[in-house]
Design brief:
81 residues; alpha+beta; three-stranded antiparallel sheet; 14% strand; globular
Length: 81
């Protein structure tokens, strides 16, 4: 199974939450928390976050993205549409 690099949020659901700041970054984790928290019910527009791991991998691999990233981003874009 491919490593997960993209996390969706919106429509009252989120793949992540506030406890995932190291993976999603501060903004990504907080957006996920606002979008997916059952009691907050904030109207967060759908979107997605690319993990902080991707940045680390990009620089560690001669400025090349992981091959699994592109299909994950395309899938997330389709979901946002």
């Amino acid at each position: 199974m491919a490593k997960r690099y993209v996390y969706f949020f919106g429509d009252g659901k989120a793949d992540g939450n506030a406890s995932m700041k190291n993976l999603l970054g501060g903004k990504g984790a907080n957006l996920a928390e606002m979008a997916g928290h059952a009691q907050l019910k904030l109207p967060v527009p759908p979107g997605f976050t690319i993990t902080t791991e991707v940045c680390t991998l990009y620089y560690a691999n001669n400025r090349k993205y992981p091959k699994e990233l592109k299909p994950q981003v395309e899938s997330a874009l389709a979901r946002v549409e």
